Amino acid sequence: MNESDLGFALLGLLDQEPRSGYDLRKVFTLTPFNHFSDSPGAIYPALRRLGARGWVAAEDPAGGRRRQVFRLTPKGRQAWTAWLRELPEAADVVTRLDRLLLRFAFMGGVLEPAAAERYLEALQRSLEAHVAELRRYRAESMQDVTVTGRLAFESGLESYEARLEWARRARAQLRRKGRT
Amino acid sequence: MNESDLGFALLGLLDQEPRSGYDLRKVFTLTPFNHFSDSPGAIYPALRRLGARGWVAAEDPAGGRRRQVFRLTPKGRQAWTAWLRELPEAADVVTRLDRLLLRFAFMGGVLEPAAAERYLEALQRSLEAHVAELRRYRAESMQDVTVTGRLAFESGLESYEARLEWARRARAQLRRKGRT
DNA sequence: GGATACATGTAAGATGTTACATGATTGT
DNA sequence: ACAATCATGTAACATCTTACATGTATCC
Question: Any idea which nucleotide's C1' is nearest the CA of A39?
Answer without folding.
Answer: D17
